[in-house]
Amino acid sequence: MSVIACRLPAATIEPPVSFRPIDAADLPVLRGWFSDAELARRVAYPADDWYAHVTGRYARCWIVHDGAGTPLGWVQVDRADPDIGHLDIAVRPGLRGVGVGSEILAAFVSGPGRAYGRLEGRIAPDNRASLACAQRCGFDPLYRRDDDGFVRVVRSMRPRGW
């Protein structure tokens, strides 16, 4: 697998970015982020049924921390197919627009994301920042929109030639 070159964030975060499985104790902090209208319209609210889903058989969710233990966001992967992970990323309000999303995504694809043969995401067409982030981190956009109007982005996690 090739090394991913993404811009490092301009925000002050302590390297390295790390991932740990979500825990019920994380929910109050994550729910507090939803006073941010942009986050609230882009990702699912971390309700109890969401938590049951992301800790169940067909999904995983990781809390992303910097080296100082500060939560930066979360990464959720749903797995309907044994080889394909459907990706959803949330970046803590106040850290968007400065490269933190790229840092999270780059660290994920070179870390926990290696467990998947292919990662896919669905991005609202007006979310240019997320589309640019995905492209910087090696995802290819499929410009034909899906049935819900989202742009799909895809990244093969296997080395070319497999």
Automatic annotation (TrEMBL):
Question: Which Gene3D superfamilies does the UniProt record give?
Answer: 3.40.630.30
**Annotated GO MF terms:** acyltransferase activity, transferring groups other than amino-acyl groups
Offer one Pfam family short name for this entry. Acetyltransf_3
Report the residue ranges that make up the N-acetyltransferase domain in this protein: 17-162
Superkingdom classification of source: Bacteria
What InterPro entries does the entry give? Answer: Acyl_CoA_acyltransferase (IPR016181), GNAT_dom (IPR000182)
Q: What is the official name of this protein in its record?
A: N-acetyltransferase domain-containing protein
Ranked from the top, the taxonomy reads:
Bacteria, Pseudomonadati, Pseudomonadota, Alphaproteobacteria, Hyphomicrobiales
